[in-house]
Structures are given as structure tokens and as C-alpha cells.
């Protein structure tokens, strides 16, 4: 079976869904194909923090209602080190900006509902996806659904299929420069039934390694501690997990993390990756398909949103003015914001994690940088403006 549309979108993550919705609002048709089921994408626990520009974008697109109703706007974060907690007042330092703690799977639910409501087709559970003819003017995507061979013929393909998807590989290897850094640590993430331990996120550095205290709802908390990436969740009883969290977070002020029943555990790898270029012929990559960051800066989903703003704008320009100009410069423009987010994520990761075998001078440098960050307004402001998110290109 062959279908025709203007933009064929591979992947119903934040990037693919946002793109379909933005294109629809400009009268441009698309079809999304997704490898997983709707239940799976709406239930996978991932990101928690939305930057100020992402929140604004979701509002502009009319999909921000539930986010404001059940998400939490935070005006600051805390950096904990040397037994003390230090507040970074994001709101004051950035002229009134903030971040939103709202889980990625809730964003996905909002976007899937909006995209289906506007009449866009999402085909879930596809297999054997192959991109064809991207160097010509009429590319196509072949795939199977329930064993039946299918095809989408389109003007453009948007590769929004995450780090492991096939789109990036469709760019000839000789035309791709891939930059990769693997960190010698992972994050052990838990979800637990407990009240919040803090009104704001805590990024804690200690000699035993990093801890992040985040939240989901008034009764569900999200927390992470730095671990060996090759460790296994079965090695960690609930008791051992809590002992590790306490040992890494307790300081001189008597503050103590609140415990609760742990109902989800997982280990996450930490990588920085960028693919240059993000486009080839009629194929355009967006989001994790082209770049990933370690989660310490809370940037991945937000970088995906920035890509989609540029890509949808370029596609709109093409249909409105018959101009290739914005499309041709998509990768170069997108990569500027991507590299900023990549550098910030690396900075936050190396600032807050301890790595085995480090020399003592590196540890002292880290402490000097942390002291500077919390004592200099200039340094705090730089952290704050990156954390709340730099403006998307072309937006205020
Ligand atoms: P996604 O979300 O990976 O979506 C890609 C989609 O493509 C589908 N797919 C295919 N579909 C069809 N055919 C194929 N052959 C396919 N292969 C794959 C997949 O099933 C999937 O549905 O990429 P996208 O849209 O680029 O979005 C990126 C974000 O998901 C990611 O960057 C964030 O989750 C990163 N991240 C965070 N980002 C933030 O902005 N703020 C945060 O606070 C934050 N915290 C995090 C995070 C990621 C984490 N993990 C789990 C890696 C915390 C964690 C723990
Ligand atoms: C989360 O709540 O999952 C979260 C928050 C901040 C980060 C990463 C993840 O930097």
C-alpha cells in the first residue's frame, strides 16, 4: 500500500510529534510512523525539565494547558557541595524566566492527542523501515505494518527516530562527521512514592559521586545517583539505594532526603554525541537522531524542540516561497544551538561528577569552579541563562 504526503516523519517522540503539529498549523500535511505502540511511548519515563523557550512553544501551539495544570514551575535550583546547599535564583538572574518540571511522557500524551485531533495519521508498531531516494525530489519511506509492505511517498523525510533509529545511517558515511564522548559513569534512576524532599531540584556533588533530587508529583519523586555504567539494578536493594542517597546528600544543615517505596529502577548511559551534518538531500534529522547529551543539563528534549522550530520554519518557507534557502542552511543553523547545549551539558557533567582515577588537582579545580559559581553573580547568571534555555533562533 502506498500513501502520499508532503512530509514523512519517522518517530513519534517529542521531535516528530512537535514537527507534525507545527506543520499542520501551517497547512502542511505529514504522516508519522512509529516503531513502538502508543501505550509504550506514552509510558516511557524520560525527561523531566522543560526550558523556558520550550514551555513558551508548547503554549503557542495550544498544547500547554495540562502542563500548567499539573506541572511545577520552578524559579531556582540548588547546588549542594561541601556539606552545604546553595540556591541559584534562576528567575531573578534571568529577568523573570523559569523552568517547568513536567514529565516527557505527559508531553507525549498531549502531543499525540493534539496531532491525532488535527487529523494527522500516526502508524504505530511499524517494522523494517528503509529510506529511499533522498537524493532526488520524491523520497519515500518503506516499512511493514502487521507483516504488510507499505510505502509513504513524500517531498521531505524528517528523521526524528532517536539515537538508534535508521535515519542518520541513511546519510552516506563519507558525508557524516560523528563526534562522540562516552563518560565513565552512568545514572541510577529511581521513582518512589514519597513527598518531595525539596521545593526545587538539587544537584549534589560529593566525594562518593553525584546525586540529583527531582520530582514528578506531590506523591512521586524522581532521583538519580551516579553509578558504574556496567552495574546492574539487581545489585541494588532498596536499603542500599537509600543508604547511598543519604551518604551523598547529608550535610551540616540537618536536611534529610525523604524515603518511600521504590517502584522503578534503571541505569542510564552518559554520552555526548553530535552528527555533522544534520541533513542530506531531502532528509533532515532532528533531536536525538542527530545529537545526544548527558542528562545533567536537562537539555535533550529542549534541543529537539529547537531543531523542530528551525526545520518547520524552513519547510514552510519552501512551500510558501518555493525557496530552498532556509532548508539549505538548516543543519548549520541548528548545530549552533546544539553545540551550545552540548557544551553546557558537558560542563554540568564534569562539574558535578567524580570520575575514578582523577588526580587531586582536577578535584580541586572542580571545587574552585563550584565556589565561584555560587559566589559570583556573573558566573551564576551564566549558569542560569543556559539552564533556563537560550532563545530559539528567530524567537524573542
Ligand atoms: P526520542 O524521544 O528517542 O523519540 C524517537 C522515536 O522514534 C522511534 N523510532 C522509530 N520509529 C519508526 N521506525 C524506526 N525504525 C524507529 N526507531 C526509533 C522511537 O520508538 C521513539 O518513539 O527522540 P526525540 O524525539 O529526538 O526526543 C529526544 C528526547 O527524548 C531526549 O533528548 C530526552 O529524553 C533527554 N532527557 C532530557 N531532556 C530534557 O530536555 N530535559 C530533561 O530533564 C531530560 N532528562 C533525558 C532526561 C533523558 C533521559 N534518559 C532516559 C536518556 C533524563 C533521562 C533519564
Ligand atoms: C528529571 O526530573 O528526570 C531530570 C531533571 C533534571 C535533569 C535530568 C533529569 O538534569
UniProtKB/TrEMBL annotation:
Domain of life: Bacteria
Entry-linked Gene3D superfamilies: D-Amino Acid Oxidase, subunit A, domain 2, FAD/NAD(P)-binding domain
Residue ranges annotated for the FAD-binding domain, each copy included: 4-344
Enzyme Commission numbers on file: 1.14.13.2
GO molecular function, a single term: FAD binding
UniProt-listed InterPro entries: FAD-bd, FAD/NAD-bd_sf, RIFMO-like
Protein keywords: FAD, Flavoprotein, Monooxygenase, Oxidoreductase
NCBIfam families: PRK08243.1
Protein name (Swiss-Prot/TrEMBL): 4-hydroxybenzoate 3-monooxygenase
Source species of the chain: Thauera phenylacetica B4P
Amino acid at each position: 500500500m502506498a500513501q502520499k504526503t508532503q512530509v514523512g516523519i519517522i518517530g513519534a517522540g517529542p521531535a516528530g510529534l512537535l514537527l507534525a503539529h507545527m506543520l499542520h498549523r501551517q497547512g502542511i500535511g505529514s504522516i508519522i510512523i512509529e516503531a513502538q505502540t502508543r501505550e509504550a511511548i506514552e509510558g516511557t519515563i524520560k525527561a523531566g525539565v522543560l526550558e523556558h523557550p520550550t514551555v513558551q512553544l508548547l503554549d503557542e501551539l495550544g498544547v500547554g494547558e495540562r502542563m500548567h495544570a499539573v506541572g511545577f514551575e520552578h524559579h531556582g535550583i540548588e547546588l549542594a557541595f561541601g556539606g552545604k546547599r546553595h540556591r541559584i535564583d534562576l528567575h531573578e538572574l534571568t529577568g523573570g524566566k523559569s523552568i517547568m518540571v513536567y514529565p516527557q511522557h505527559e508531553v507525549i500524551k498531549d502531543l499525540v492527542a493534539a496531532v491525532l485531533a488535527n487529523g494527522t495519521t500516526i502508524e504505530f508498531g511499524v517494522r523494517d523501515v528503509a529510506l529511499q531516494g533522498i537524493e532526488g525530489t520524491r523520497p519515500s519511506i518503506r516499512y511493514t505494518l502487521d507483516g504488510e509492505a507499505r510505502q509513504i511517498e513524500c517531498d521531505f523525510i524528517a528523521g526524528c527516530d532517536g539515537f538508534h533509529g535508521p535515519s542518520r545511517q541513511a546519510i552516506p558515511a563519507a558525508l557524516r562527521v560523528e563526534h562522540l564522548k562516552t563518560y565513565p559513569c552512568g545514572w541510577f534512576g529511581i521513582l518512589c512514592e514519597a513527598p518531595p524532599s525539596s521545593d526545587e531540584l538539587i544537584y549534589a556533588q560529593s566525594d562518593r559521586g553525584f546525586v540529583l533530587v527531582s520530582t514528578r508529583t506531590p506523591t512521586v519523586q524522581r532521583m538519580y545517583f551516579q553509578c558504574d555504567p556496567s552495574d546492574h539494578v539487581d545489585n541494588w536493594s532498596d536499603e542500599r539505594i537509600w543508604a547511598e542517597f543519604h551518604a551523598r546528600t547529608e550535610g551540616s544543615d540537618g536536611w534529610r532526603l525523604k524515603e518511600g517505596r521504590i517502584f522503578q529502577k534503571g541505569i542510564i548511559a552518559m554520552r555526548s554525541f553530535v552528527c555533522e551534518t544534520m541533513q542530506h538531500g531531502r532528509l533532515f534529522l532532528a533531536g536525538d537522531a542527530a545529537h545526544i547529551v548527558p542528562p545533567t543539563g536537562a537539555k535533550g528534549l529542549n534541543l529537539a524542540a529547537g531543531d523542530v522550530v528551525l526545520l518547520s520554519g524552513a519547510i514552510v518557507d519552501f512551500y510558501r516561497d518555493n525557496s530552498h534557502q532556509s532548508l539549505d542552511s538548516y543543519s548549520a543553523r541548528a548545530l549552533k544551538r546544539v553545540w551550545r547545549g552540548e557544551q553546557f551539558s558537558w560542563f554540568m557533567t564534569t562539574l558535578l561528577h567524580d570520575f575514578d582515577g582523577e588526580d587531586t588537582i582536577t578535584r580541586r579545580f572542580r571545587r574552585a569552579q563550584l565556589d565561584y559559581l555560587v559566589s559570583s553573580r556573573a558566573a551564576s547568571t551564566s549558569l542560569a541563562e543556559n539552564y533556563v534555555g537560550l532563545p530559539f533562533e528567530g524567537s524573542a
